[in-house]
Amino acid sequence: MFDKILIANRGEIACRVMETARAMGVRTVAVYSDADAASKHVVLADEAVHIGGPAPADSYLRGDEIIRVAQQTGAQAIHPGYGFLSENPKFVDAVEAAGLTFIGPSADAIRKMGLKDAAKALMEEAGVPVVPGYHGTNQDAGFLQEEAGKIGYPVLIKAVAGGGGKGMRLVESPAEFADALKSAQGEATTAFGNPDVLIEKYIQQPRHIEVQVFGDGTHAVHLFERDCSLQRRHQKVIEEAPAPGMTAEMRKAMGRAGVRAAEAIGYKGAGTVEFIVDGSDGLRSDGFWFMEMNTRLQVEHPVTELITGVDLVEWQLRVASGERLPARQEDLTITGHAFEARLYAEDVPKGFLPATGTLTHLSFPAECRADSGVRAGDAISPWYDPMIAKVIVHGSTRKVALSRLARALEETEVGGTVTNLAFLGALAAHQGFANGDVDTGLIARDLDALTAAPEVELRHKAAAGMVALDLVEASPDTGFTLWAPLHRAVTLSRAGEEFTADVQVDGPDRQLWTIGGETVAAERSQGQWRIDERRMPAVSQSGGLITVHDAYGLEFTAIDPLDRDAAAGGDSNVIEAPMPGLVKAVFAKAGQSVKEGDRLAILEAMKMEHSLLAARDGVVAEVLASSGDQVEAGAALVRLEEEGDG
Ligand code: MV4
């Protein structure tokens, strides 16, 4: 086994790898950017080395610098985590050329899976089912259309270099083919510098089921499947293992196909073979097809760990250090069911826009596994993926595990930023999901219900008022009776609506709150406040942002009467870039009338496109950015006329 390894990553996956390394007695070296100098992964490591600026290109993508740090610190191997350098064959070559071990597959195996058409041909040869279609080199438009006719419409055109749905076009009939092909090739050229496409039969109501494989370079085993069908715009939201509705026969067939795929490329380490499954009418043993192979440990690996009892990072370190596969196929079994929900700092009403902020409060119930790279007090910065944590649960059955997930999400508390917690909670309570009727279209179909604003009760408003007026900790010992006025009031806002909360303080343990003409009592006994006869939820405060930790976190803003505009939650006149990125499109034109929620621009950042929406109805005064601009976080893109102007 290695004595010391370097982790070429940050956040939760760097922490995850370090925890196992530590448990195995392996020392760890962290690398970090300026933005991560005090982060959790730096503190967890035995030593940490600064490698550059906050932009990934200046730090976590600097392969040469990372290799130099490994040599300097005496690390024998490099764990790449996921993202960053994890699937970069040139980095693997450089690591090996430096005499170090890459904890993962060979550069050759990564290259073989890098291009969709070549990977598909290889898999077909290895006896892995692939979607019927054309994946050859002839890119002549007339020829491709002929192939589409042979496959039968509807067909899907995909970029061979593609991923995440980029360069993908659904074609329903021959008449649409030529235009769709042109547009797919154009997008593929812009995004990947490679216009080549392949044509596939379109699978209706697809499910995404992937097989976890593990190889030693020659032989491979599989650790069963995960279902990742709950996605929003190709981003996974909730994953589970095993897949609902999976039969023993189909599991065997998929597992075998995964092992064949891994062995065909001499795979070493943890990998995932993704299949598309026709979910329109139950699962069938002949109804799954190879999509792609991810040659790394994946974000959702913990659900596999919880149902198999295997620590996949331990296996990675053992196999990379030269040990044989730690288990035979027949030793591996499934126990119970597991779910993972990805908790993000994002603004769901603003179209799931990534958010930033300092986490003034962060707590998870003891009953779940929370894999996180941040602690209370840490910032979610605009530089990286805004994932706060993965909330992971296990239960004896799917039903038990799902109720544990729902409970864990209800008991998760995040203060200091908006999150997708309520959205995750709504998914965990979704009837179709509970029935196991999952497919990749579920979220889009029920988006309105899943993103509905929660009911705010009087007691929540009173709780926010208590925080704003600093009346939670009031006690006679702190001289309460000396300074307490009989009546105080504060103006708060939530979701653009303002209200005034008026309190009559009857003593250190009793307050009467009047809000919108209704009155509730807050009473304290044995140190616990009750409002309207209900236990007061936990609360947290970050600057002017107050979070009442009920209904997945209700955010209020305290309005300072001396500084109304600043406290009202930002300037609704200006649409700003929420993070650094590339302006992909600007739809707003000066003089144009817009409605709240209208899409005014698209910003590409963190490998995703984000719609920037109008915060209110109004008229566009000025367009300050154009398509193709690289902008900083906070850059003004579109300005609306002052309300009441003109
Ligand atoms: C498909 C498909 C239907 N038929 N291929 C989307 C991203 C890329 N990795 C593969 N994708 C799809 N390929 C055929 N022949 C539907 C999708 C698809 C999808 C696949 C997996 C998970 C979510 C998805 C969401 C929309 C479309």
Give a summary of the structure in a few sentences.
It is built from 19 helices and 40 strands.
What this model shows, in words?
This protein has 646 residues and is of the alpha+beta class. The protein is built from 19 helices and 40 strands. A 9-stranded antiparallel sheet has the order 29-28-27-26-25-24-32-31-30. Helix 4 (89-97) packs antiparallel against helix 5 and helix 7 (141-151) crosses helix 8 (174-192). It is globular, with a radius of gyration of 27 Å. 46% of the residues are buried. The model is unreliable at 565-569 (pLDDT under 50). The protein binds ligand MV4. Residues 131, 156, 165, 200-203, 206, 208, 231, 234, 276, 291, 440 line the site of ligand MV4.
What are its keywords?
646 residues, alpha+beta, globular, binds ligand MV4
Indicate the structural class.
Answer: alpha+beta
Strand order of the largest sheet: 29-28-27-26-25-24-32-31-30
Mean pLDDT: 92
What's the total number of strands? Answer: 40
**Beta strand %:** 25-35%
- CA-atom Rg in angstroms: 27 Å
**Shape call:** globular
Ligands in the structure?
A: ligand MV4
Model regions low in confidence, pLDDT < 50 over at least 5 residues: 565-569
Helix proportion of residues, in percent?
Answer: 25-40%
Compute the number of helices.
Answer: 19
For the record, give the distance between the C-alpha atoms at the N and C termini, rounded to a whole number.
73 Å
Largest sheet: 9 strands, antiparallel
